[in-house]
Prior knowledge:
The chain is an alpha/beta fold. It contains 20 helices and 14 strands. A hairpin with a 6-residue loop joins strand 2 and strand 3 (76-80).
Amino acid sequence: xxxxxxxxxxxxxxxxxxxxxxxxxxxxxxxxxxxxxxxxxxxxxxxxxxxxxxxxxxxxxxxxxxxxxxxxxxxxxxxxxxxxxxxxxxxxxxxxxxxxxxxxxxxxxxxxxxxxxxxxxxxxxxxxxxxxxxxxxxxxxxxxxxxxxxxxxxxxxxxxxxxxxxxxxxxxxxxxxxxxxxxxxxxxxxxxxxxxxxxxxxxxxxxxxxxxxxxxxxxxxxxxxxxxxxxxxxxxxxxxxxxxxxxxxxxxxxxxxxxxxxxxxxxxxxxxxxxxxxxxxxxxxxxxxxxxxxxxxxxxxxxxxxxxxxxxxxxxxxxxxxxxxxxxxxxxxxxxxxxxxxxxxxxxxxxxxxxxxxxxxxxxxxxxxxxxxxxxxxxxxxxxxxxxxxxxxxxxxxxxxxxxxxxxxxxxxxxxxxxxxxxxxxxxxxxxxxxxxxxxxxxxxxxxxxxxxxxxxxxxxxxxxxxxxxxxxxxxxxxxxxxxxxxxxxxxxxxxxxxxxxxxxxxxxxxxxxxxxxxxxxxxxxxxxxxxxxxxxxxxxxxxxxxxxxxxxxxxxxxxxxxxxxxxxxxxxxxxxxxxxxxxxxxxxxxxxxxxxxxxxxxxxxxxxxxxxxxxxxxxxxxxxxxxxxxxxxxxxxxxxxxxxxxxxxxxxxxxxxxxxxxxx
Length: 665
Ligand code: BDP
């Protein structure tokens, strides 16, 4: 931790810092939440007096709020049915002030979802799975029963917890799953639960509820039960006792997130039971406490079935069988957080089951902390096809760590922000959210905001273009998923862990045939979409190679061949990030030197990586297409055989992209 810069670099930095609070103040009464709102206004609000009032109103959902300027303009009335709503309204006022917007009209907001939850993939040893921003925020060692303000380390982390809760409240996030879905049973020991309670107490006044990921085999691992069969009475008894123990410590505990029978995790299917059996058993022990189970649908097994079809095949038949407090949590796409996927067909296919979408905020497949990729457009693409009211809640895999700027790349915090804003109101546009974030974090100067907002809006499409355009997916390197490895072949690996399973390039063409005559994944979509996706002539080109295997000579809408079009997309991606460099360099007068240099340096890496992606993919696919790269686009800079040697898992490799390796480690 370098000084306290981490506090200064987030959007809430515009708000004055809270001091260290007295122990025990996180007791969760409405009073303390309200006091925080009042203190925030006292310290950060420069306008006319704001009066806070707790008040039920038919038009407002629980944590909604109404902001009403008095007719004479001399005061503002902020009302909400809950103290948390008052706090949200307070942060909205402060945000408007930071964006230099006047509060001269009534403003009424209610959250679209009651579940707006971050999923931390944090391990108990302090590492973060797919985390690119330092270590886990949770300093388990110092999280003892009382957080002592005189203990230096404890006080640093204490302030960070408060800043974290505050940042979440500022964008309306109201839940946090503290630990990795690949869960260690240890989290449920009495010792860890006491520490979890500390966090829950700190977060409560900010309206932030704590949840835990649980390992389905915990009864065996922790107490030596011979089985974790959900229908075995001793197992259900164990979970009931454990759940009661949790609620004695944390009366408003949110519930469990479960990854079961997925990628080697234990689950009910190990005992011939179903996901319903497992989820309902947990739901029953949580129900008396009003807790929920978020049961993940990220499942795929080494069968012959197309991996993109598997979650649907396993879960759709279970519709209507889950308890009301089970929510099936489904990744936005059918495979795994790729730069672009069509939506998962499970949405819409389980009308009698509450569903949550799981987005990935951390950029596992999008250049990690090195690439500037603003994710709101990707999530909006999902909401354009999946009506927001079909969902019960929204979860996002967090990108937050102990790095001085919280999220690694200075612009990655925009994705945390955008996640919260869209979970609050999925109808907000990507541009509005980018605009808010830039104004709150950098400058209100139009000369800065307009071009940088445009850069952000284009950044996701640029990444798709230089990584895997036209519906290509999973061309990533083995394990770390950073760079390109379309050739990757690991002896003995499951086929669906290898890029060739997905791109299927051969001398005839490229792409995965998921049409009716192929794996028939199209059949899982509603009829109108299935029809559209099934025919290459009507399939949106951005999904073309997701649904079709087509000849290299296939004519695209542009009149070009598929091969030429592919080359152009890669080239376009590279040219766009070069343009981003220019935009950023021109923004120098509006940005502090430290953040300016940081973003500048990461953009240089991004451009080099984009060239790396383009060369690796085009030179590799050229082996099959046997066609020239169109002569009017930039020639490859690398030799394919050298790119094939890159292995970021090997420390002494001489990489053509030295900076990348420095950053990566
Ligand atoms: C994949 C990640 C892996 C996660 C898994 C999951 O590579 O680390 O454990 O998803 O979501 O994207 O369970």
